[in-house]
Write a structure and sequence with these properties.
Blueprint lengths: L1 E11 L2 E11 L3 E5 L6 H9 L6 E6 L2 E6 L3 E2 L2 H4 L1 E4 L11 H7 L15 H9 L15 H13 L5 E5 L7 H17 L4 E5 L2 H7 L2 E6 L2 E5 L13
Helix pairs in contact: 3-5
The chain binds adenosine-5'-triphosphate.
The site of adenosine-5'-triphosphate (ATP) has 12 residues, from β1 and α1.
């Protein structure tokens, strides 16, 4: 399902960071876990095509996305992956519907305000966003913004979903709700998932195969050692 062997050296001033990630996951849902600065986002960006490793290869869902040497480096668009950024990266001047449609209509034209696409309407409905389709992201709650970002990531029927700390920006009650929303979605939609997190409860809930990133390197982790999310007390 996921096969990564990548090397990348990064410099900032006198600091140097060596990313040297080797991992193979046969599971549909892979979680990369680790402390801040371990190399999680860099690895996810490499999978998405937003960061180019110095060498190595990346295979996901049977497709070769990157190989160097080998001369393969698919563009982010050609990789056909849904990416949920940590801060959701919504366009503040576009409505909810336009933001979701943006996942569908790549190019330099913003999606028209009232244009309707079946796929867009489907995801607006699925995530309970239809009633706020004409609102701007600034007029939404954190959980609603996250659902818009998820809808945008899913609308183009991606081959896999990449989630960067999807619940970190949410308060605990909302975090619980959104975890349940995502779990329900994953039960419906058979899609490979790569989720990065520093939260052990995300690991317990979403990990079928887990790797801990430490100092730029991946180590297979035992899922049984991660505590389940506690029950919610409202
Ligand atoms: N463009 C860059 N240039 C130089 N160094 C970078 C760059 N991007 C990241 N780094 C460094 O690489 C290391 C790993 O960064 P990365 O963003 O992958 O960490 P992370 O595990 O995702 O952390 P967090 O959980 O805080 O997001 C950090 O030390 C960071 O400073």
């Amino acid at each position: 399902m996921l096969d990564i062997a990548i090397q990348k050296t990064l410099h900032t001033g006198k600091r140097r960071f060596e990313l040297n990630v080797q991992l193979q996951s046969a599971s549909q849902h892979t979680v990369l876990f680790g402390q801040s600065g371990a190399g999680k986002s860099l690895t996810l960006k490499a999978i998405a095509g937003l960061m180019t490793p110095d060498s190595g290869h990346i295979r996901l869902g049977g497709r070769l996305l990157f190989s160097q040497p080998g001369g393969v480096n698919l563009t982010p668009q050609a990789r056909q992956l849904g990416y949920l950024f940590q801060d959701y990266a919504l366009f503040p001047h576009l409505t909810v519907r336009q933001n979701v449609a943006f996942g569908l209509v790549h190019g330099w034209l913003n999606p028209r305000t009232r244009a309707q696409h079946d796929e867009v309407e489907h995801w607006l409905y699925t995530f309970g966003l239809a009633a706020m389709a004409q609102q701007l992201p600034g007029e939404l709650s954190g959980g609603q913004r996250q659902r818009v970002a998820l809808a945008r990531a899913l609308v183009a029927k991606p081959g896999a979903l990449l989630l960067d700390e999807p619940f970190a920006a949410l308060d605990p009650a909302l975090r619980h709700d959104m975890r349940q929303t995502l779990l329900a979605l994953l039960a419906q939609v058979q899609i490979p998932l790569v989720l990065i997190t520093h939260d052990e409860q995300d690991v317990a809930l979403f990990g079928q195969q887990v790797f801990e990133l430490r100092d730029g390197q991946a180590h297979a982790a035992n899922l049984a050692t991660f505590p389940e999310a506690p029950p919610r007390h409202d």
